[in-house]
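Justification of computing resources. Each target in the renewal requires a structure prediction run like the one illustrated here; the chain below, 837 residues long, is used simply to show the kind of job we budget for.
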Amino acid sequence: MKVSTQPTTENSFELLNLSDYKFDFKLVAVDIKRIEGLDGLYHRELKKAERQVSSRISGPACLFREGGRQYIAIPSDSSFDSFLLNSKPAPVRLAPGSEIRQVSFLDCDSQEFNIISKWLDFSIRQKLKRKGKIFEDSSGRFFVKNPSNNLGNGGVDLLPGFKFRLAPDGKEKLFLVLDSTHRYVDRNYLSHYAKERNVKSIEKDLLGKRPNLNYGTRFLYEMGDDWFPIEVFAFSDKTAGSELIIDPATGPRSMVSLYDYLLRVTKGHATCLADKISKSDPVAYFKYPGKEMELRSVPISLIRRMYGPGDRQVGKLHSATIKETDKRFQIIQSENLAKFQNLNFNGRPLEISQLPLDSNLPAFPLKDLQFGGGRIVNGLKIRNGQEILNADYSLDRKRSLLSVGVLKKDHIDSMQCLLVPQGTSFPKGLQSRFQSLFEAETKKLCQNFPSFRKVVFYQTDKESVTDIIDGIERNLSDSGVSSGYALAILPNWREDDPRIGAFHDFLKYKFKDSITFQCASGFKLNGFFENKGAGKYDFVDSDSRRKFNPYLFNLAMEYLKINECYPYALKDAPNYDMYIGIDVHQQSLAACFFYGKGEEIKIRHTHIARPPSKSRAEKLTESQIFELIYPVLRRQIPRYCPTPNSIVIVRDGKSHEGEWSALLRTVERLHTEGVIDNADLPCAVVDLHKQSQIPLRVGNRDSAHRNLGLPLAGTYRIMGRNQEQAFLFPTGYPFKIRGSAKPLHLTLVDYRGNMSFEKIIEDIFGQCLLAFSAPDRSNGLPISIKLLDDYLQPFGYAQGRIDKILSKELNKAEASESNVRVKFPRQNAFHRNRAEV
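Resulting structure tokens:
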């Protein structure tokens, strides 16, 4: 393992006087019956008990196990009246114990540390909110109420903010990891738009276009001095003066108008609601994001729409908020850290370092890559007798592909189909011109590409998206196409037409078990060409030709990728020679099998049953994982990796017990059947978080000027109480990115044998360098996870809608107005491959 080091600065500030504190707590016994085979139910009920207790004490509560019994720890100065928890399989009574226990930071085990960190985190958040002028959202981020409106967008407020987490480094240090953030909020309240349009029209636009019916439209609710995000699901027929709610202060026997209730509960606030709302205000129904709860009521004069960075209302405002590394750290230290001054815990000052942590972090070198024809792209180059990073690494990847084509050129399925919209929207001459150019480009990259065996046309003038896809299914069947691969030219609808997203996703979803589709934009293709006479199509002008070439290259690369013709691989074998990426979107579970240097990569998927309504959709059982990976490994290990030295599962998101037990069960079965020799084959499960709760950033420190720039690509930081957490920066120098580098958060969940976490991190970085979709750019994900994302995204997107559409249960009256049974907003709720829409 070869690494270099660099002087770095982290956005981490050490808590200095934790050894001065004693943390007192007491226990609440939780005697929930644990039934064999129903572990998921048991853990859900425990978490419910923890939430109920936390709500009763209005403070932190933490699960705690001792002597084979389960408890909930609460602060020693907290109390609540005994109550009956409606748990399963039977109700249990919860009551606080009387014994007070004490623990210190430097002398605690893992459970006790969880208590300490929860107590500290809760205390810090409570004190921050009491300072006023800031509010906390549902994900624990804080935002300033006064917007920064000097960036030129007149319709949207930019609310600057910050986020933090407490992160241990070993058993003796705890850091406040602090980062800046921001939020986009409509400058006007929803009532402003209701004056211009009727509420029913607004309800249809805002709520009828939701990509997933399980989620509402995000708004910011300003209830006096208390601000918080909500999800709106519907509108009431009543007003704030006539909408009656149960008054929590008096119980279900007493009803009060929403208007009177809000004036009462905000009576002591600095913000006077009487100036903001009236009894005639329309009312919306909402939930808190991610919460299982009954709908509640809110006057629309108190809510403002929240936007994501890709929404058209934000425009160029998002681009203006991207901060380079040095500027980001200046904001963190000069503005955000100031919010944490003069904090205390248990009556004593909480001392936080005023300087970020300086360190020397290691970085893996860029890996050498193997291309067709023996071409090698080196990660390091020799200059003046010294090894330096290849500053042209990403450009060399693309140049090599243009020169020698893809690495894997054999075993291409003969059934290749071109799906084309019929009629004037995509004329025959345009189809012939595009087809010839695409086949020539694809053959240049992969000489064994067999050209399109079938060209199948489809009608786009049907009533709805599903009618069009039903017609495609009939036409494919009539043409004898029941399996294989297809390039689908999407209808010539404008890029902001909501039908485009629906068509793309439903097409891939409908044929996921038989035909693998890649999509191309019919609208873009029409823009590149024009009829030069007699049905002959050519480029509009030289500028169109120049823009078409990279589009065609990316489209050909994506099409070869779905054919499992991957463009290049690692030159040298990784530390561990078998990785399995696992992800689940809604009811589709998929695994990506990465063998050796990446010359063989296979994706397989299966359909799983819908989970119980209150369980996490991404929590997988041992059987679900075993039934997917075991038969694949049984077939593929003898062919692609006959003598494996290890197997590593990389779970996209948070794993549970199912991944580890399924892996051990798989190895045991494969050994019994003689597929692998080692019954104790080294194994590991690693969680990969694309968006970490710990917002770690790293800057490369210029020792002469103290300026901070991008860290080296491959920089990593291992931390955690047991060094089980790692932050890997796959982007950075020499890649060119805007802003500052974001890390992948990796957690070593479990392992056996002589497995090194550091070597796993190195292998994952190597996979990040396999940027198949855009070889001239950096890639923030390992290819085993990136391929899964591309594959599963259409299956998971808008699953609630898809179920209804495929069973044809949508309202046809709505379809007649919109010309499609479901309309999707044009926003970055998901992103397409570069060569697609």
